[in-house]
Design brief:
alpha+beta, 4 strands, elongated
């Protein structure tokens, strides 16, 4: 064999070896599969990691809120579950107190909560001792049911739960006196008309009283940012109002609030 033929053969063998040594595009994958090893999957975020991030954000927000407001970790909002007294009342269950028992919680004993009653429902107002505690502006409401005073605004003589006749403060004065002068059918018609308008006025006045009481109940039943709350009811026997004696007359302030003339458009 000639020297030139031998060189060509050696060159051909070298190229063949190089081709066999060059990995194919699927050679790595084939090798991985051959050894039974799976390629790593993309990393996912676990639920625990999400909760950790949320907890961190909550802690940061709460700390900043307390630093700014110096009072609340919820930027001024105070949920009921953050108030120890409210949680304790919920765990204890509703109270049922007589008027004598209710009078003990009048704010004179700092070791006891401060209660007031409105329309026989008892509310805890301990969150405002500067108002309902001893020496407070509204201390006279504490330890009693003074529903009538809430309606009339007479805080001296109307500190009682008796609201009989209080609707008169919403009845126009011109309906107090039956019309006189006209005779015959005209006079009878005038009296019938007066009677109908008077009955309607008293009916609307009773609605006004209920709305007034309801408005005050909303103030104490979770109102004022939730710092006041319901704790129970006043224990009373059936017919307790009648045993209070004769119906009270309107106080001077309530009489002064009466409308002078009936509003025919409302009527």
């Amino acid at each position: 064999m000639s020297t030139s033929n031998l060189r060509l053969r050696n060159l051909g063998n070298t190229k063949a070896e190089q081709r066999s040594a060059t990995p194919s595009p699927n050679s790595d994958q084939d090798e991985v599969q051959a050894f039974g090893v799976n390629s790593p999957a993309p990393r996912s975020i676990s639920t625990l990691e999400v909760l950790r991030v949320l907890a961190g954000l909550f802690l940061l927000s709460s700390s900043l809120s307390y630093f700014v407001t110096n009072d609340s970790i919820f930027w001024g909002y105070k949920p009921s579950f953050t108030r120890l007294s409210r949680v304790q009342a919920w765990m204890r269950g509703p109270l049922l107190l007589t008027e004598s028992e209710l009078s003990i919680y009048n704010g004179t004993d700092s070791a006891l909560p401060i209660y007031l009653a409105l329309n026989s429902t008892i509310y805890d107002v301990s969150a405002s001792p500067h108002l309902y505690g001893l020496g407070g502006s509204y201390h006279f409401f504490s330890g009693r049911d003074a529903t009538r005073a809430f309606v009339t605004g007479c805080f001296d003589e109307d500190l009682t739960p008796d609201i009989r006749g209080v609707e008169e403060m919403f009845v126009p004065e011109d309906l107090d006196v039956e019309p006189v002068g006209a005779e015959g059918e005209e006079g009878k018609k005038a009296k019938r008309d007066w009677k109908i308008r008077r009955e309607r006025a008293w009916r609307l006045a009773r609605v006004r009283v209920r709305e007034s009481v309801k408005g005050w109940q909303q103030v104490f039943d979770g109102g004022k940012g939730g710092k006041y709350f319901r704790v129970g009811r006043v224990k009373r026997e059936e017919g307790w109002e009648e045993r209070l004696g004769e119906q009270r007359n309107l106080c001077k302030q309530a009489r002064g609030q009466r409308p002078k003339i009936e509003d025919r458009e409302v009527a």
